[in-house]
Design brief:
alpha/beta; Rossmann fold; Arc Repressor Mutant, subunit A; 2 domains; four-stranded antiparallel β-sheet
Length: 227
Amino acid sequence: MKILIVEDELKTGEYLRLGLSEAGYVADLVPHGTDGLHMALHGAYDLVILDVMLPGLNGWQVLQALRERGLKMPVLFLTARDQVEDRVKGLELGADDYLVKPFSFAELLARVRIILRRGPVGNESTMLRVADLELDLLRRRVLRNGKRVDLTAKEFGLLELLMRRHGEVLPRSLIASQVWDMNFDSDTNVIEVAMRRLRVKIDEGQSVKLIQTVRGMGYVLDVPQEE
């Protein structure tokens, strides 16, 4: 799942981005309200974590613009403004939750999971399925042929990306940016190692191999076509 963090305190924002990434989410960080609105409108995010006091558009304005455009993505306000009227204003504008700084990351993560579990009306299913492979986004659980598959947070994020875009060949550069949040370095084999480990966990002992390498192009998860 993709989370957008709009936070101008870069230390706080980077702390959130790293923590959410380690929890298995794809997290992007932007420090400006106007840029945050643009990314929220075009980035297909599952959740926005939004500060109130921002350069450019403030958090109230960003949320109002999202709702006026009919976007129902969940929004969690994370701000030092702790007055009751501020909380009421955020909720009346359409926020899903309001957390006051300073905060516990464990509490924030719990609230993120609750919001994503609830999701907006008409949100896509929290279950991804390809053949007999199932990925439960809420329980963070993977089953292959009905049997539990234990994955690390990065492996889970990698598998989620492959399943969301199954049938599509994903280049290494895309995988690096989406799962590792880094620019692709042709001298590193981190992606190849991760794919090899994931393939062992998902496909070893199975008659149908779902994860394929497309030489010179990247990786794809799909049911092989019978020749």
